[in-house]
Amino acid sequence: MSIQKKVVIFIIGFIAVGFLISFGFPKEKAMNENAEIRIGAGDDLSGVLMKETVELLSETYEIKDSLESSSFQDC
């Protein structure tokens, strides 16, 4: 089999797998406009950047401050 046929078969297979994935995997039925997004960061530089991001987003979105402790292992 020539290399061109192999490339064409690969491309067709890649497209077929893409269609199977897009139609076969579950999707969200409807967008929930009232869903809450939870964000958080550690006490290092990521926390400072997150606070600045939240301040910028608070102009556009309603942001609730709630302190909830959850542990994670930092490297």
Can you walk me through this structure?
The structure is a single chain. The protein is mostly helical. 47% of the residues lie in helices and 0% in strands. The longest helix is centred in the N-terminal third of the chain and has 22 residues, at 3-24. The model has no long low-confidence stretch (mean pLDDT 81).
User: What low-confidence regions span 5 or more consecutive residues with pLDDT below 50?
Assistant: none
What can be said about the biggest beta sheet? Answer: none
Number of DSSP strand runs = 0
Q: Categorize the overall geometry.
A: elongated
What is the typical, i.e. mean, pLDDT?
A: 81
Determine the strand fraction and express it as a percent band: under 5%
Question: Which value, in Å, is the CA radius of gyration?
Answer: 22 Å
What proportion of the residues is helical, as a percent range? 40-55%
Sketch the topology as an H/E string, one letter per element. HH
Structural class: mainly alpha
Ends: how far apart? 51 Å
The number of helices is 2
Note the topology.
Elements (H helix, E strand, L loop, with lengths): L2 H22 L20 H13 L18
List keywords for this structure.
mainly alpha; 2 helices; 75 residues
Brief account:
This protein is mostly helical and 75 residues long.
